[in-house]
Amino acid sequence: ANWYVATHPGSADKAVPIASLYPEHFVNNVMGAGFPLGAALAIVLGAILAGSEYTWSTLKTMLTQRPGRLTTWAGRVVVFFAWLGVMTAVLFAVGAGYSALIAAVNNHGIAWPSVADIAKGFGAIWLLFGAYGAIGLALGVLIRQSAVALGVGIVYLLSVEVIAVRFIDTVSNGDYKWIGNLFVGQNANALIAHLDGATKGLTISAEQAVLVMFAWLVGLVVAAAGLQRVRDVT
Fold first, then answer.
1. 139 to each of 14, 57, 183, 225, how far by Cα in Å?
2. pTM of the predicted model, to two decimals?
3. CA separation (Å) from 108 to 4, 22, 26, 126?
4. Which range (49-53, 63-67, 163-167) has the least confidence?
5. If you average pLDDT over residues 196-219, what whole number do you get?
6. Are 215 and 50 in contact (CB under 8 A)?
7. Between the CA atoms of 128, 132, 133 and 139, what dihedral angle is there, to the nearest 10 degrees?
8. Taking the mean position of all CA atoms in its chain, how far away is CA 93?
9. Which of 180, 204, 181 is nearest to 192 (CA)?
């Protein structure tokens, strides 16, 4: 889509430079695709994984065969986050392939970003997917149904969090902006901006962004484990 916009610009102020699609910039383009589109997909996958067993009424059958609830949940979480790593790898592979193809078509030399930059981008997207995937997991366990859980998660991503942060930032002339800076979306945007080099006006450091998203990931997984441990699984 970016290649089409770059080659068929609608207006000069909205044009996408073709140079920004070459391999040296592919990490930035991949991160732009990873959020919010990839985050929404992570929520959907998490809600389906955690909520479908309730819908199918297979969870209680699984637990009667052993192992116990927490062991079963831990295994599911490990597999889920491994799959998010695979999804991240596919996203980077496709992004790299298309950037190389665009460069070849335009007779542009291929120069890749450094391994460190690729690793940072890969880690950031994997963490971002994990934080939002954990929201889907927790909602699936809380609601005990995948369809409603993924719907609530997508609405949260696209509107609830945005509205909440904007409201908090306007209260008392921004005195409570620090609360808004604890939302996962704010930190996801900040981390991507730091990796892109667009740090002007940012109030969230890269370290804070990583810590907050990791805290969301761990906290939601643990909370969901607690719910599954004590609640009726039927």
1. 38, 17, 17, 12
2. 0.89
3. 17, 8, 14, 30
4. 63-67
5. 89
6. no
7. 170
8. 17
9. 204
Structure tokens at 191: 């981390």
- Distance in angstroms (rounded) separating the CA atoms of residues 27 and 24: 8
- Residue 92 has which token pair? 């980077």
What are the CA-CA distances from residue 217 to residues 19, 104, 125 (Å)? 36, 40, 13
CB 220 within 8 A of CB 137: yes
What one-character DSSP code corresponds to residue 81? H
SS3 content of the chain, % helix, strand, coil (to 5): 80, 0, 20
Between CA 87 and CA 42 the distance in angstroms is 9
- Mean pLDDT confidence for 119-132: 94
Q: Chain-centre distance of CA 77, in angstroms?
A: 16
Q: State the maximum Cα–Cα separation within the chain, in Å, rounded to a whole number.
A: 64
User: Would you tell me how many other CB atoms lie within 10 Å of the CB of residue 1?
Assistant: 7
Averaged pLDDT for residues 141-170: 88
Tell me if residue 196 falls in helix, strand or coil: helix
Structure tokens at 122: 């890969």
Question: 3-state class of 181 per DSSP?
Answer: coil
